[in-house]
Write a structure and sequence with these properties.
mainly alpha, 2 helices, flat
Length: about 55
């Protein structure tokens, strides 16, 4: 059961790596850091709202 989840993570990583490399080359560091910060805060807010329901 866990093997399938691990396989999915590996395949997803292999497919996402070239796209991530392209993005890192094209977008400035400041924009990337802000985007990651917003993503982390958004995911945290989603988790908090889910816990409060």
């Amino acid at each position: 059961m866990h093997g399938l989840a691990v396989l999915g993570l590996i395949v997803g990583g292999v497919l996402a790596a070239p796209f991530a490399g392209y993005i890192v080359r094209r977008v400035s560091e400041t924009v990337l850091l802000r985007a990651v910060g917003i993503l982390v805060c958004g995911l945290a807010a989603t988790q908090i709202v889910g816990l409060l329901r």
